[in-house]
């Protein structure tokens, strides 16, 4: 049975259960930066040039790292919808962030994605903004209309293989948000999302390898994600070895190497001393 949890780490609102393709366990916060820690290089595990080339090629196809605003903007402009959503979420964060809060930018991004691109997750996000009044007027009727639109789009998108759409629908059934409360259907949708993560991983999507590993507690898939260039996978695996998560025997040396790799790859929270 998959864990029924609120996914907010990468792309969701702080309050809403908006889903993402990748997440982290407790103790492995997902915050990134474009500045690499050069001193981490010496702690990286040995790798062949072929493995490095494979990881580099895979990383180019991955969504941007939060809070790489320029990188997210470039990938969004190139048509990567996941990077667009991460950029929108980046501008909507509460607290001390590099960009600060710019809810008007968040709204502009998801509004365009929803209305022009017919991207279900963006409609779902926009509906949440209006439901809670985050950076926009609180409007329950508009929120309901946008959520209805999102559900229609995401039913098709989930069937077509979009992980985020399946996650949003599962969340809707859990919360009764746009769909009737139905834990059984939510479970089916989460299982569908997990199946899609595995399929995507097997096709070479490193970020889906990492998220599959997190939801199934399968470190083999976390390693595949990390080796494929997904730095969040490296961070999660490093934290597992550091804290002994899931009954794993603590291994400080492996933990340091994996966290150093994630740090050098742009995940700021992996750079913090443990």
Please write out the topology:
Layout: H1 49-61, H2 69-77, H3 81-91, H4 103-115, H5 120-132, H6 140-160, H7 163-175, H8 183-202, H9 206-216, H10 219-227, H11 231-243, H12 252-264
Task: Provide the descriptors you would attach to this structure in a database record.
globular, 12 helices, 274 residues, 58% helix
Explained architecture:
The protein has one domain: Serine Threonine Protein Phosphatase 5, Tetratricopeptide repeat, CATH 1.25.40. It has twelve helices and no strands. It has helices at 49-61, 69-77, 81-91, 103-115, 120-132, 140-160, 163-175, 183-202, 206-216, 219-227, 231-243, 252-264. The chain is globular. 49% of the residues are buried. Mean pLDDT is 79; it is low at 1-60.
Question: What amount of the residues lies in strands?
Answer: under 5%
Number of distinct helices:
12
Shape: globular
Count of distinct strands: 0
Which architecture name does CATH use? Alpha Horseshoe
Overall helicity: 55-70%
Order of helices and strands: HHHHHHHHHHHH
**CATH-defined fold name:** Serine Threonine Protein Phosphatase 5, Tetratricopeptide repeat
Q: What is the terminal separation in angstroms?
A: 32 Å
Structurally, how many domains make up the residues? 1
The stretches of 5 or more residues where confidence is low (pLDDT under 50) are: 1-60
Rg, nearest Å: 18 Å
Classify the secondary structure makeup into a structural class. mainly alpha
What does the average pLDDT come to? Answer: 79
Main β-sheet, in a few words?
none
Look at the structure and give the CATH class: Mainly Alpha
């Amino acid at each position: 049975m998959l864990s029924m949890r609120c996914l907010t780490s990468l792309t969701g609102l702080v309050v809403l259960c908006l889903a993402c393709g990748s997440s982290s366990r407790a103790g492995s916060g997902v915050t990134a930066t474009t500045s690499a820690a050069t001193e981490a290089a010496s702690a990286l595990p040995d790798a062949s040039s072929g493995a490095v080339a494979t990881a580099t090629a895979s990383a180019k196809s991955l969504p941007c790292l939060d809070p790489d605003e320029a990188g997210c903007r470039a990938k969004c402009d190139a048509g990567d919808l996941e990077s667009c959503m991460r950029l929108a979420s980046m501008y909507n964060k509460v607290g001390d962030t590099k960009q600060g809060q710019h809810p008007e930018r968040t709204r502009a991004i998801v509004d365009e994605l929803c209305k022009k691109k017919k991207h279900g997750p963006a409609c779902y996000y926009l509906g949440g903004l209006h439901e809670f009044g985050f950076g926009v007027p609180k409007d329950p009727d508009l929120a309901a209309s946008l959520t209805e639109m999102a559900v229609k789009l995401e039913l098709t998108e989930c069937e077509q293989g979009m992980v985020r759409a399946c996650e949003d629908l599962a969340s809707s059934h859990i919360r009764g948000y746009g769909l009737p409360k139905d834990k059984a259907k939510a479970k089916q949708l989460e299982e569908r999302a997990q199946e899609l993560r595995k399929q995507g991983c097997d096709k070479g999507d490193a970020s889906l390898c990492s998220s599959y590993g997190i939801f199934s507690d399968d470190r083999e898939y976390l390693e595949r994600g990390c080796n494929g260039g997904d730095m969040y996978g490296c961070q999660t695996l490093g934290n597992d070895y550091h804290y002994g998560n899931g009954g794993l025997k603590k291994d400080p040396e492996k933990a340091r190497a994996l966290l150093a790799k994630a740090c050098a790859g742009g995940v700021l929270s992996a750079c913090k001393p443990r």
